[in-house]
Design goal:
- The protein is α+β, with helices and mostly antiparallel strands.
- The chain folds into 2 domains: 4-116 and 231-261, no CATH class; 118-226, Hypothetical Protein Tm841, Chain: A,domain 3 (2-Layer Sandwich), CATH 3.30.1180.
- Helices cover 33% and strands 17% of the residues.
- Strands 5-4-3-8-6-7 form a 6-stranded mixed sheet, with helices on both faces. Strands 1-2 form a two-stranded parallel ribbon.
């Protein structure tokens, strides 16, 4: 992780601890190189989970370090999720890291599990929200004192103005709900939304520092539903067909290697390569 507040507490005693790489955009390059090299030497492979809301300098530093180390054992994972959703996904990967999954399958699992995360927020204003489509009518209403908006950023963008009966379409499977409160007072998330989504567990945690920038306001309550059970996560991942990367030979899920970035050759390309010469 690139910030300590994105490393959520462990779900159980098997959950692997997170390693935080702070101040990547401010520390000397040689220190960043040494830190990633040490992690790679110690663990063999490293999965760096990075929010798209971090400073561009941090993202550039990660790509620079990976390039200078010339390593296919460092995967940079930066899905389009709000900060709390990304923190939840990172913890799920830490849960799975205790299982008998190969590095490539574990890193690929992040893409798969993203589809089972519902991440959003209750906002006091959408005037500066640029991550989710907002129409002019909602922009105008955001200037009305007391207006609040329920927003879902993933998996499908949704936006509703909070009022009697207002809710969002949620998951169609059993989940737990994690809530992080910012500078907004409301019981809509823990009451109305949690009931509508039939969540089976609810916990609260501190709001990630990147959340206010991601959502365009500090007047928010961020929320995320997720699959909490390791057995369910493991079954999901192991039920998907695994492929071997044709370039580096590592086992992965999907058609793109998360470590060397090679994509699986097309069927036509494979057939052409098998044609006899002459």
């Amino acid at each position: 992780m690139t910030s300590a507040d994105m490393a959520l507490p462990s779900q159980d005693e098997r959950t692997m601890p997170a390693v935080v790489l702070p101040d990547l955009d401010r520390e000397p390059l040689d220190r960043s190189l040494a830190a990633l090299q040490a992690l790679t030497d110690q663990h063999g492979h490293v999965i760096v989970v990075c929010s798209q809301g971090v400073a561009q300098a941090t993202r550039r530093r990660l790509h620079t370090v990976r390039s200078l180390l010339e390593s296919d054992r460092i995967a940079l994972f930066s899905p389009d999720l709000p900060p709390l959703g990304l923190a939840v996904l990172a913890r799920q990967l830490r849960q799975l890291a205790s299982c008998d999954l190969s590095p490539g399958v574990l890193a690929s699992a992040g893409r798969l599990l993203t589809h089972y995360v519902h991440a959003g927020a209750l906002l006091g204003s959408v005037a500066k929200l640029d991550r989710v489509p907002v129409n002019l009518k909602s922009h105008a209403k955001s200037w009305v004192p007391g207006s609040q908006f329920g927003v879902l950023a993933h998996p499908q963008p949704q936006l509703v103005r909070i009022g009697p009966g207002a809710t969002l379409e949620g998951p169609e499977f059993a989940t737990s709900l994690l809530v992080a409160r910012g500078q907004l007072q409301s019981d809509w998330v823990t009451g109305t939304l949690a009931k509508a989504w039939s969540v089976r567990g609810l916990r609260e945690c501190p709001l990630p520092a990147e959340s206010a920038r991601w959502w365009g306001t500090g007047r928010l309550i961020e929320f995320c539903t997720f699959l909490p059970d390791l057995s369910v996560l493991y079954q999901l991942v192991t039920s998907v067909r695994q492929n071997r990367c044709h370039w580096c030979g590592i086992d992965v899920i999907g058609d793109r290697c998360v470590f060397c970035s090679a994509t699986a050759p097309s069927v036509s390309s494979v057939h052409e390569n098998q044609l006899p010469a002459g």
